[in-house]
Write the structure tokens for this entry.
Amino acid sequence: MTRPLLLCLALLFTCPIPAQEPPAPKDAPQAPAEPAESEKIRALRVLTESLRANEAERTAQRELLKKASTEEQKKEITAEIDRLSAKIKELKTAFNTTATGINPSDAVAQAETPLSINEELKNIFQPAIRELRDATAQPREIESLKTQVVQWTAKLALAKAALAQIDQLLKESTSEEVTRELASARKSWEKKLLEAESSMANTTVQLEERKRNAPSVVSLLAGMISHFWKNRGLSLLLAVIAFAITLVLLRRLYRMFRKVSPIHKKYQEGLTSRLVDVFANAFIIIAAIFATVLTLYIRNDWLLLTVVSILFIGLAWASRTALPPYFEQIRLILNLGTVREGERIIYNGLPWRVETLNFFCVLHNPDLNGATLRLPAKTILSSYSRPSMPKEPWFPTRIDDWVILDDGVMGKVVQQTPEQVVLVKLGGSYKTYPTLTYLSKNPENISPQFQVSTTFGLDYQYQSIATTLIPDIIQKKIYQSLVERFGKDAIRSVNVEFASASASSLDFRITANVDGELAPQFNVIQRMLQGGAVDAANENHWVIPFPQLTVHQSP
């Protein structure tokens, strides 16, 4: 229907405008006013005039066909009559369409014709093939001329060789009949030689002309870019913009919908809400694709429309075999897999909280710096999660905590990430551990509170009071010294107990439980425990033994 309408408009705008008649005198009698001619009537009038003109022309051509004397004239006139007949048929169709507004092909029930795959593929790929043909027209023409030059050169050499052979035979011939036949053959080859020379000269001139007029590489590229932008670039840009705007706009609208949706409020993160999310995301992608195709359709860019359609059809066809491996991922996204949202998962040796499950899952560890990971769903398919217990820590330490490691290193945590942990030791030096190595050294966190212990020995002569008076005296002395140094609130308790009777001394176990704020004073407190015990021994004149060897001589 579009083609006849365009033809009507073309005829309407190309028809000559009638000259205006001079105005009638004022005293002349006024003719009754005729009703204004509508646009449709004017278009029908133009179509009728064109139809009559073509019918008259066809009649004239038929008269000429009757008078034609040669077959060539008859063929030319017949071709012209066929063209005029097709034109008349097209004008009649356009007249009916314009008059009724209905396409005749829609009103007549046509028999369904079988589809031809080759014909349909040709129609689909025709725009792309035409563009490729137009883009390579000049190089193909030059290559064709080169081929023709080679062919005519070969024919020219062949004709010269034949003439040379005939001339040689003419010199040797003694028979008049042979000479006559050779002369006839020579004339034939002379014609061929002349034809080859003229054709080669003409082809060579055309080739040189094409090469001379061929654009430079820069101008060729500039022309191709300009042509692409004018014909395809703008359409492609608009299609990409339409895709992006549709995708972003619909996603934002859906996020707003989720905030007020009764489904998401009632079921929160249940299966129903997740199914709605999956179908909504699929609909958004389909809508964005439809916006892209619609933009190219409105722009009448059939080449890009064909390419995009083939691309999407290919993706849909490939999804038949590509989708089954994603079923497990879909179960994971629907929160039906071995990993669930809000639970605890171990990934790369570290605990993580599963924040969101989607095609890209988000894992987070609240106790590590920069510990938010975006992972493809297939990465955690083989993992499993469990509910996290109340107050269960996500990492043994936090920033500014003091720790003691199995290797004896003591320091303050200044940085801990999924990759490394950095400690500041007493004295200011830095010690860096890979995070998994740091965990393998079983860090003891002494920031909340900690205990310092030591052993102190006295001579065996105080055996009678070792379990009664001595522990109390040492405990009071050490507690007093610690309170004087650090304050009563920081010292939680001091205990002194008889530990064992060793080979040369009576040993006492001294422990002090202190607040975590004294963690930097760990070594100082350990020394003060020994110092307080020695002060108590000096005040009470207790002998501190030392290792000795006693020799008994037999009588």
About this structure: Residues 63 and 77 are 10 Å apart (CA to CA).
